[in-house]
């Protein structure tokens, strides 16, 4: 999928775009299924990075306290509860720039992953930067997918984060792919980006080889104290368009309607599901921010007649196309050397 293809699709009347997205969705996925994922922040706050949307950066007075890495027993309790509640994916996040082998905290994370992977859910972690060896060990410990978002276009990224680069993000994604883990990679809408930035992000994601297994589409949750605290709410139809475009551009990926659902009406969420979103975060809390109440989500899914997706803990990473360069993106798509 090229940038021109995406521009053409984006310019369609909304219902024409929705029709195409729906057709793609029904060719690739059982209609009417949504995966429930539970998030847990296993290490909160105090992060060295300056991501201007994030309440967990130590640089902003967001009111989020820096915590220690959770004990594995406490994580297991939460994972068990998530599994009982119907979640089929458990995603653990840490407010770190990255992890390094040979450190106590990395060994602790591996122990946590080994425990959680015994529960039969897909296990996802998001720990920041990884080298090839760390990626290999995480996979060995039982991680099925690694979440590492590109967040926006390479052009807009330096306006949002200065402590690491787009290339750093691409390098980690490459390490995850090489280790044979599935990649969960998406972005945030509402960072002050243009439509072109949004389409560039999708272009890059659509050209990953192998393609991402899941694509989270977050809407900025403006966190008090962060530089983006006053950013304007998104136009809901632009969110729907982005979901539809993601569905068409990356048909085999789960498209996750991620952060920001507390500000969406039931009707907007319904349009997102129609357009191809087939996964949500489920449970009252994301990492530090609010998510809709479980009862509210149950009611919404029931009223739309949507079923929840069965777990797939043995999930294999999508296969690379041997006819194309391997990696997270074509070098020419983003000027990167990853
Ligand atoms: N530190 C790791 C990293 O940056 O990859 C993992 C945790 S980080 C909080 C995970 C993702 O959450 C970010 O990449 C971003 O896409 C999303 N996120 C963080 N704060 C957000 C906010 N205020 N609104 C929407 N999405 C947010
Ligand atoms: C993703 O794309 N969104 C989730 C998950 N991956 C780790 C995180 C959303 C964080 C929202 C802000 C917060 O809770 O602090
Ligand atoms: Fe740290 Fe991740 Fe937040 Fe950036 S997004 S400040 S790396 S926790």
Write the layout of secondary structure elements.
Layout: H1 3-10, H2 14-28, E1 33-43, H3 72-84, E2 89-94, H4 104-116, E3 122-126, H5 132-141, E4 145-147, H6 157-160, H7 166-178, E5 182-184, E6 187-189, H8 195-206, E7 214-219, H9 236-249, E8 254-257, H10 266-275, E9 277-281, H11 294-304, E10 307-308, H12 331-334
Parallel strand pairs: 1-2, 1-9, 1-10, 2-3, 3-4, 4-5, 6-7, 7-8, 8-9
Bound molecules: S-adenosylmethionine (SAM), 6-(5-methyl-2-OXO-imidazolidin-4-yl)-hexanoic acid and iron/sulfur cluster.
Number of helices: 12
What's the CATH topology name?
TIM Barrel
Calculate Rg over CA atoms.
18 Å
Query: Which structural class do you get from the secondary structure elements?
Result: alpha/beta
Give the beta-strand count.
10
Share of helix among residues?
25-40%
Distance between the termini: 20 Å
Strand content: 5-15%
The overall pLDDT, averaged over residues, is 94
Outline the structure in words:
With 338 residues, the protein is an alpha/beta fold. It has a single domain (3-304), classed as Aldolase class I (TIM Barrel). Helix content is 38%, strand content 14%. The protein contains twelve helices and ten strands. It has helices spanning 3-10, 14-28, 72-84, 104-116, 132-141, 157-160, 166-178, 195-206, 236-249, 266-275, 294-304, 331-334, and strands at residues 33-43, 89-94, 122-126, 145-147, 182-184, 187-189, 214-219, 254-257, 277-281, 307-308. Strands 1, 2, 3, 4, 5, 6, 7, 8, 9 and 10 form a ten-stranded parallel beta sheet that branches. Helix 4 links the parallel strand 2 (89-94) and strand 3. The longest helix is centred in the N-terminal third of the chain and has 15 residues, at 14-28. It is globular. It starts with a helix and ends with a helix. Residues 330-338 have low confidence and may be disordered. The chain binds S-adenosylmethionine, 6-(5-methyl-2-OXO-imidazolidin-4-yl)-hexanoic acid and iron/sulfur cluster. Residues 53-54, 56, 93, 95-96, 126, 128, 148-149, 151, 188, 218, 220-221, 223, 259, 287 line the site of S-adenosylmethionine (SAM). Residues 39, 55, 91, 93, 126, 147, 149, 186, 216, 218, 221, 258-259, 286-289 line the site of 6-(5-methyl-2-OXO-imidazolidin-4-yl)-hexanoic acid.
């Amino acid at each position: 999928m090229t940038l021109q293809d995406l521009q053409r699709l984006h310019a369609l009347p909304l219902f024409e775009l929705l029709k195409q997205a729906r057709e793609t969705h029904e060719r690739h996925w059982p209609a009417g299924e949504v995966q429930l994922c539970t998030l847990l922040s296993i290490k909160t706050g105090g992060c060295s990075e300056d991501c201007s949307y994030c309440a967990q950066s130590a640089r902003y007075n967001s009111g989020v306290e820096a915590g220690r890495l959770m004990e594995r027993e406490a994580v297991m309790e939460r994972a068990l509860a998530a599994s009982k509640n119907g979640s089929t994916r458990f995603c653990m996040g840490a407010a770190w720039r990255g992890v390094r082998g040979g450190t106590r905290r990395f060994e602790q994370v591996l122990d946590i992953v080994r425990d959680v992977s015994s529960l039969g859910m897909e296990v996802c972690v998001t720990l920041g930067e990884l080298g090839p060896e760390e990626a290999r060990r995480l996979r060995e410990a039982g991680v099925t997918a690694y979440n590492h978002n590109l967040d926006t276009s390479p052009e807009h990224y330096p306006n949002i984060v200065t402590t690491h680069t787009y290339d750093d993000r691409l390098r980690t994604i490459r390490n995850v792919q090489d280790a044979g883990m599935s990649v969960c990679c998406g972005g945030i809408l509402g960072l002050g980006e243009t439509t072109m930035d949004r389409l560039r992000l999708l272009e890059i994601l659509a050209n990953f080889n192998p393609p991402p297994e899941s694509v989270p589409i977050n809407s900025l949750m403006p966190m008090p104290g962060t530089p983006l605290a006053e950013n304007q709410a998104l136009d809901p139809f632009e969110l729907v368009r982005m979901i539809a475009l993601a569905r068409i551009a990356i048909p085999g990926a789960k498209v996750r309607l991620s952060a920001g659902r507390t500000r969406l009406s039931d009707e907007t969420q319904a349009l997102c599901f129609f357009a191809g979103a087939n996964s949500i975060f489920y449970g009252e809390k994301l990492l530090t921010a609010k998510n809709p109440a479980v009862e509210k989500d149950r009611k919404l899914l029931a009223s739309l007649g949507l079923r929840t997706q069965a777990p797939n803990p043995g999930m294999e990473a999508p296969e690379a196309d041997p006819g194309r360069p391997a990696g997270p993106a074509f070098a020419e798509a983003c000027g990167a050397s990853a």
